Amino acid sequence: LNPIYAALPTTVFEVMSGLARHHQAVNLGQGFPDDPGPLDVRQKAADAVVNGWNQYPPMMGLMELRQAAADHYRHWQGLELDPETEIMVTSGATEALAGALMALIEPGDEVVLFQPLYDAYLPLVQRAGGIPRLVRLEPPSWRITEEKLAAAFSPRTKLVLFNNPQNPTGIVHSREEMQLIADFCARYDSLVVSDEVWEHIIFDGRRHLSMMSLPGMRARTVKISSAGKIFGMTGWKVGIVMAQPELMKVLGKAHQFLTFTTPPNLQSAVAYGLTKDDAYFEDMRAGLQRSRDRLAKGLSDLGFPVLPSAGTYFLSVDLAAIDPKLDDEAFCLNLVKNHGVAAIPVSAFYAQDAVRSVVRFCFAKQDATLDAALERLAGAL
Ligand code: PMP
Ligand code: GLN
């Protein structure tokens, strides 16, 4: 048995969703919307299965999707990408992350990661032979500072694994924080694997800034997107990877022996979806922002100290002010068993020195679902 994998617990998302089913709880844990997603995009996928081509699509992805992605990211993020040499389709962002780390890391290379971190990152880095250099971020700002980066970077830093907008905190790191990372990457000749799966879920009139668009970062960034997030259909495992041609060649080598391809019907439906007009994406954002505000207000009214959320499907509460001894995991277990609401303890996203007072809730739900959760939460503090 590989010791890294043998020692891993089951992911907190699976554990909490299992407990939610068992206790018939309202599930605000694992991040997924409770509506079925855009009908026209689903119809495209269905039509493609019935009428179309169900054999292996090209290894790097359907050209219609790679072209649609090039157009989409030019329009939304000002990126100029060659669909032939700089865009690849993978089976979800998860495959893209695994492949990028396998392809870019040599054993002993150091990888800078920010805690709290999306739970797949650390085992993938370690399995690829990377040495994690963890930067610990703290509530309420979760800010990245020059001092923290200086302590983490070294001449052995191969890459930074960066996630923005950030899961689980729901923060959006500023241009200044991103520029600091870019400056360190230039100084140490490092790459950034930039997990931007939440790029469209960003609130209060802000626009997403891709790491790739910062000065000097075009050639140093592997940008990763996820159609599952863009269209709120998280079971659709369609990832989009963008990088300059030299990097893309080796990323393609990893992809060819991980999954090789991604179902063609989903690819053609995503290609169609990416061409939707601005109003579609603005409406999606506005709807999620309303849900964020509904849950934030409801939680505040009940006395939960709510932290700001600027993007993603998530907001969190910091219970330290209510009870300094509180343990987020114990709190969430009690919540799901005795109050019928599932949430995620943020300590699960730390490898060491965990912050243990923060609990994450998913607000990508119908009003009735949020209200039902709030009703049950009324007695939980
Ligand atoms: N990265 C982050 C930060 C995520 O939140 C998620 C999904 N929740 C993923 C990657 C995985 O995306 P996919 O489902 O496309 O594999
Ligand atoms: N990304 C989702 C979340 O953060 C869940 C992903 C998963 O279940 N692996 O809740």
TrEMBL record:
Coiled-coil spans in chain: none
One GO CC term on file: cytoplasm
Keyword terms, alphabetized: Aminotransferase, Pyridoxal phosphate, Transferase
Any one Gene Ontology molecular-function term assigned to this protein's record: pyridoxal phosphate binding
Domain Aminotransferase class I/classII large: 26-377
Cofactor dependency: pyridoxal 5'-phosphate
Pfam families, alphabetized: Aminotran_1_2 (PF00155)
Record bears the keyword Ribonucleoprotein: no
CDD domains for the chain: AAT_like
Database matches in InterPro entries: Aminotransferase_I/II_large, Kynurenine-oxoglutarate_AT, PyrdxlP-dep_Trfase, PyrdxlP-dep_Trfase_major, PyrdxlP-dep_Trfase_small
Family under the similarity heading: Belongs to the class-I pyridoxal-phosphate-dependent aminotransferase family.
Listed PANTHER family: FI04487P
Protein name per the record: Aminotransferase
Organism: Azorhizobium oxalatiphilum
